[in-house]
Amino acid sequence: MRDAETATVRLSEYTPPAYLIDEVALVISLEPEATLVAARSHVRRTGDTPAPLVLNGERLELQSIAIDGTLLTTDKYQLEPGKLIILDPPVQFRLDIVTRISPATNTHLEGLYMSAGRFCTQCEAEGFRAITYMLDRPDVLARYAVRIEADKAAYPTLLSNGNMTESGDMEGDRHFAVWVDPHPKPSYLFALCAGEYESIHDTFVTKSGRIVALGIYVDPGDSERARYAMDSLKRAMKWDEEAFQREYDLDLFNIVAVRDFNFGAMENKGLNIFNSSLILADAETATDADFEAIEAVVGHEYFHNWTGNRITCRDWFQLCLKEGLTVYREQEFSADQRSRPVQRIKDVKRLRARQFGEDAGPLAHPVRPSSYQKIDNFYTATVYEKGGEVIRMLKRLIGADAFARGMQLYFERRDGTASTVEDFIACFEEASGQDLSGFMNWYDQAGTPALTARGSYDDEARTYCLTVSQLTQPTPGQTEKNSLPIPLHIGLIATDGARLRTTVEGESAPREEHALVLSDARTTFNFANVEAPPIPAILRHFSAPVTLNDGLTIEQRLSQMAHDPDPFTRWEAGQSIARAIMLSGADMHASALAAALGRELDRAQEDPAFAALALRMPDLSELILAAPMPDPEALFGARETLRREVATELRARLEAIARAKGDASFSPDAGAAGLRALKSAALDLLASLGEEAGDVFEIAFATAANMTEAVAALEALGASGSPAFD
Ligand code: PHE
Ligand code: ZN
């Protein structure tokens, strides 16, 4: 490895660029093994004193450099690994650089490369420097105009960012297209695609009346399978107008699906590039989970148009500024399209499965890291998922109204800039009038806070004291931890399920749910007017990304399952009971758990997807993590035993659900998917009965009308140990 790649980059050492580039005109003449890139940049120095211009470049074959039309001789510049240094440039000048690259042999999936005979690009984070020499950093924003030239027969479609202003034929079977993006952008948002595609088209009219032409480009033969992605895109555009007052800002929005792609998708301005697995779906080849993922990722990339593109990051340490915020927006979109509680529970499961482990292991890092060697390694669950949780907490801490005002202030004030987390938070300090300096610890401190909560009830005074403490364990490189401001949404119910309306110091009226904040290492909250011994739900809606030891008994959790108004709390209570039973082998509560799950089945028609989640027991990997001395075989056995007991008690109802015939005509919408999820969960539980379950799986498989049902039936058949599986 070269030095340039191993040097540590530090947030504290950020310096503004010595030069800026306002305009870039590219002429890209495509040839698989010898593409010529002519880049004309308008460059100006930012400081008062002369300085060399240091451009980034990787794997480029330099053909020529000229300043204001005069070719540079070799004594006027230096080529170093990863760099082109122009030694003594004027204050302001026109820079012409011609380079040659070989997309066909580029196997990095970065820069300009080929996938299935088509050209495509990937520039985030530092891929543009493999296309031409550039100030390849997100705080250099330029307007791009791109002329693409290529063989007309082999590459009939030529796409880039912005709007197409011109196209036509050239000599020798070639043609060209000119794309102009009026919005200044960092180089990482540049994109180019060229090849033979099949496409579908639609239009979207923005709230101020702009007509946007939408296109999705896929492999020939695949276009019908892009319909759901198109539908998701239109819903995302509408949603951003309603939820965040964000309108689209070009006449075109294109998506290209690519088979060879490193990540899920990429938000290039006006030309999103997707891994085709996140575009293509139909009833026969995709499950509901695939449809859900398409909707979420199409939304995510579209939402980046404002949170990422219009307002971008000053440097890569600020990655969460665009990713955490966009994850939050994507999750809210999905919650509004589907069941909000189910979305929340799925997001929490994902956070716990992917991010909590990161926080607890050797790679723990803050949402905003302070140093890196390769930024590519920081596209993590911490930056994305915990970054999203941090935004959600901000909203809880300052309230929905101040949050909405802060977002609008951010969009107005920071539009067109490369910003920092501080710039973002400043908007919310202003909108809320609160000092958020303590909140910054959520960005800069790694680790998952562990909360412990214990309460005591005073029968006579009708008061309840709840003491909550927080502790964050040291993480590599960060031994001292500060206390964090942790939003707690607390509700009290009585054993019989009555929702207790109580008052907490500082609140004017009694409430069923309190939005409180734990700011210190330890705080006692005093509740008054508590009419019965309470069962506290301390983290309703999973109000913060923490672990919680609340010391509740299984009986108390059973009451929560039956009565807590918050679905997340009900789900969490069921999971804790199941986990406790499986870990201790104490199954005297199994039939109470079955009864509680039975009540979820009774009200399943309200939200079948929620009932489906409730029926799913914690999986083996979760048990292994929770056990002090894990014995996987014993844990597997305990899990099956509990599942069998629950299935036996609920058998009649589970069978009725499992045998119900699904709709012959398939709709991927949330309502239909929820019913299928419930049926899948019922089949899964019944599988624990083994042979005893009879022919229910075979019938479910034989009558499956779509991929979701077929996969669920097949999995259950396999899990039941039936010989029919073979
Ligand atoms: N910015 C992309 C997203 O989150 C992820 C990505 C990063 C894709 C780097 C490719 C390369 O939407
Ligand atoms: Zn993103």
Key words describing this protein structure:
binds zinc ion; eight-stranded mixed β-sheet; alpha+beta
Task: Spell out the blueprint of helices and strands.
Layout: H1 3-6, E1 9-10, E2 19-29, E3 35-45, E4 53-56, E5 61-67, E6 70-71, E7 77-80, E8 83-86, E9 92-101, E10 111-115, E11 118-122, E12 142-151, E13 157-160, E14 163-169, E15 174-185, E16 192-195, E17 198-205, E18 211-218, H2 227-244, E19 252-258, E20 265-266, E21 271-275, H3 288-303, E22 312-313, H4 319-337, H5 340-360, E23 371-372, H6 381-398, H7 400-414, E24 418-419, H8 421-432, H9 441-444, E25 450-458, E26 463-471, E27 486-494, E28 503-504, E29 513-518, E30 522-528, E31 534-537, E32 547-549, H10 554-563, H11 567-584, H12 590-602, H13 608-615, H14 620-626, H15 632-649, H16 651-659, H17 670-686, H18 696-702, H19 707-719
Parallel strand pairs: 2-12, 18-19, 19-21, 22-24, 25-32
Antiparallel strand pairs: 1-23, 2-3, 3-9, 4-8, 5-6, 5-9, 7-8, 10-11, 12-15, 13-16, 14-15, 17-18, 20-21, 25-26, 26-30, 27-29, 27-31, 28-30
The structure holds phenylalanine and zinc ion.
